[in-house]
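Notes from the 1:1 (GR / supervisor)

We went over the backlog. Supervisor wanted to see one worked example end to end before approving the batch request, so GR pasted a single chain during the call. The sequence is below; no edits were made to it. Supervisor asked that the structure be written out right there so they could see what the output format looks like.
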Amino acid sequence: MIDPFGRTIRYLRISVTDRCDLRCRYCMSEKMTFLPRSALLSLEEIAIIAERFVARGVTKIRLSGGEPLVRRDVGELVRRLGRMVGSGLDELTMTTNGTRLAEHAAAMVDAGIRRVNVSLDTIDPDTFRYITRHGDVAQVIAGIRAARDAGLRIKINAVALKGLNEHQLAPMLRWCIDEGLDLSLIETMPLGAIDEDRTDRFLPLTAVFDSLSVDFPLVRDTHRTGGPARYWRVEGTDTRLGLISPLTANFCDGCNRVRLTTEGKLYLCLGHDDQVDLKAALRDGGLSALDDAIDLGLGRKPARHDFRIEAGAAPAVARHMSVTGG
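Structure output shown during the call:
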């Protein structure tokens, strides 16, 4: 699958639910309206669409949300997709907030997942509770350790937030080194209306990297995971530091990703509203119509996103990250 700009699409991200058991301030409003369950793809439909993408050349699938582990019977989907690993699919991964990892980690490994990303913006209990509005960081850390002990490789994803966790990023990196985990830092993105002005929280990773370089010996690393992160290794350790900088270091030239929402919309770019309805195509016309809809979507993939952080500016798109999937 090749888009109009010659980029080969190898990576499908699937949001299995828009619901989450946390309410992170940069991601959601405190009072969210979620999709009715009748609007969602069934797990069977998600599997059929994923299998079609693999048949057409996708080699990596990431399950996300919302929080994917809050969807009932998601384990059945993981097991079905896991059967494709080694038969067209190179890797099946998941992004999770970690609150339910302790419960699901062993089953995830059995199903074929070997690596997960955990969204964790701080290890300070009070700051974590403030950012998530009610979360318990001890529960997440316990889940991370249970997942690691079950055999999963863990990468921590932290959104850099001015005035909230900027002074806790160095301790976070030190903790990751001590725990044997990788860390990726992410710039906040203008997706969906929230209860704060994102300009107050935007922290450029150029400044974060300069600050971390004072305390940690960072050397450039050629490691790639198929996503947009650029990596450095903390010299003398097994920990990598990734930077995902959609605003200060645009990475669109190498984009190999498309995103399937929980209601069956295929988005070609996180920062654009162009989409095609794969659910309608599959239900109305079967696999042939699904293929046609995928082709239509690929033809609409834009050259780049239009993210901007400006005081008072509307979000780049109205939908929240939890709708499109992380």
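Supervisor's comment: The two ends are 22 Å apart (CA to CA).
Batch request approved.
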